[in-house]
Design a protein that fits this description.
single chain, about 425 residues, alpha/beta, Fumarate Reductase Iron-sulfur Protein, Chain B, domain 2, Glutathione S-transferase Yfyf (Class Pi), Chain A, domain 2, 4 domains, 5-stranded mixed β-sheet, 4-stranded parallel β-sheet, about 50% helix, binds iron/sulfur cluster
Length: about 425
Amino acid sequence: MTPNLSTPSESQYLNCIRCGLCLSVCPSYREYLSETASPRGRVALTRKGLEGELELSPNLIEQMYGCFACMACNEACPVGIRPADLALEMRQVQEQIRPAGWKQTLFGGLIPKPGRMELATLPLRLYEMTGLRRLVHAFSLLKLMPAQIRDMEAMLPRLPQRPLRQVLPVVTPAKSENRCRVGFFLGCAQSLMFAQESAATVRVMARNGCTVVTPKETVCCGMPAAGYGRQDLVREQAQHNIALFERSNVEIIVTDCATCGSTLKEYGKLLAEDPAWTERAASFSKKVRDVSEFLASIPLEKPQGRIEGRVTYHDPCHLRRGQGVWKQPRALLKMIDGLEFVELPEADWCCGSAGSQLITHYETSLKVLSRKMDNIEGTQAEYIASGCPGCQMHLNVGIRQRGLDVKVVHPIELLDRAYNGKKDS
Ligand code: SF4
Ligand code: SF4
């Protein structure tokens, strides 16, 4: 092995007693029924790879990329092994041995540059704005495309005319008695694709007595780079975001993206060994809250409007396991008069999105989604609420594949509509 390679420590894998408890909760194992696609198998491959018994070959690393990073195995392990974390760290090992140039371009040159991302996604907005998308659907033109392209198109929500970053004011004043000054971390996917959700988040916080500060220069939280083994880029992005919010002078930092939230909460750990950043990163992470977590901690106005219908809720892995937040979004939904909440069986099972699995592991990703969709159909809900853009996009694929009349929403959107007395449009 290359000297000076940064690798997981032995304590992260040596204690595995091979009990197999993690197998029963693993979506990739459930689909492949193969030891190498299981958490226990990934731990064994890590050990053999790092001890030199197996070559750290592309095949071995591919098993690490087959992991959905759902973290269910971390929770299940009785001796504290964290196979999900190990899979991510092994991707970092691969990047040290065989760095991929395209990752530098994508995760270093494009994703952390909001202006470039806005330009790169302009064709998608034009596709929506010019009415082309409506025509493509009206004439069933997608049927001419390969299934994977059809599914990727189905992932897209209704896109905003302009990225929310360009529309939101830096300071949104409180609309009732001012209680606190809140920083809002506007994630990339929220700004570019789910703008109406984040606009709703800001409105709901302002309505409940928060002055909301949205710095325009935030960059990607770092999760995409982390998922592809580029922890060095995550550190750069973390330092940028920490310094930015320090200048905003806010008490709390709120995000409505489960993935961003779980990453921002880890900045303290990520920069713990860097003396210049240890305290600043820890202080930043302590302030981070998911929007449902934050709203549960302040006195909240009861919405006067009603929404008639049945709603169920899918737990994003990065919210439930990554942040331990699962009661709060349910509580928000239950505040709304007229809305019947029905619990989703296996609500905390991964939906199969994991960011880019629909592109990189298409068939497995759809198999995992299929079980989620069976459960959703069983609830007969008209709304499926979830606070993660990746999950929402993936659920949209399942809904369009099955031709269901179910709307995928963020819980905050329904709350905002209830405040405004609006019915579904
Ligand atoms: S994180 Fe999820 S998909 Fe990955 S090994 Fe663990 S249980 Fe399996
Ligand atoms: S990782 Fe944990 S749960 Fe899985 S086999 Fe090893 S000891 Fe058991």
